[in-house]
Amino acid sequence: MLYKRKKSKIVRKIRKTLIILISALICSIILFEMQAIPFTAKCVKKQAKTVSTKIIAQSVSDISDEMKIKYSDFAKLRYSDSGDLKSISEDTVHVNKFKSAVTLRIQEKLDKNEMYRFELPLGAFTDITMLSTLGPPIEITFALTGSVNCHLKSRFESAGVNQTVHHIYIVVDTEIISISPEYSEKIKFKTEYEIAQTVIVGSVPSTFADIIR
Hints:
Layout: H1 2-67, E1 75-79, E2 85-90, H2 92-110, E3 115-121, E4 137-158, E5 163-179, E6 184-201
Antiparallel strand pairs: 1-2, 3-4, 4-5, 5-6
């Protein structure tokens, strides 16, 4: 009888210990999930913007090379007989062709729904600096979709006595939706890339500042 009582006490202690351990494990998992989900979302957003920026930059570069673009494709300078800048006119056909080509190339890449992957050590999810590089790598995947809109803009910059550099940029307004198993989020950002420039000799009237837009 005494042996049975001792055995019963041992069994109860084991059960109690197991219940405590299981409860602690469940609480740890819940706390980890509460910490991991927003951290993962922040990391995916950062990676999605990085990937999108690379896609845009590569698309602009590729189209520029394929079309062999130069300053005269976008703007025409006309001087008076005395050598003063008389007018700057936009080459609408080339401007629209370039914008359309860049937009289409970026959109095609976004519409592929390609899966992107990156890894983070398990310790990074704890948000504790000392543990951020520890633990096995955890793979995170996401896909991109979205839309883009392109336009060109000008900027005039003084380059010395009686000289002005006319810069032409393509501005890409991007609205990306990053999709991962944990969440999806809309990201809006703007990037710009210089695509052409020339040195203008003589004064530039302020009325020419918005020649390309």
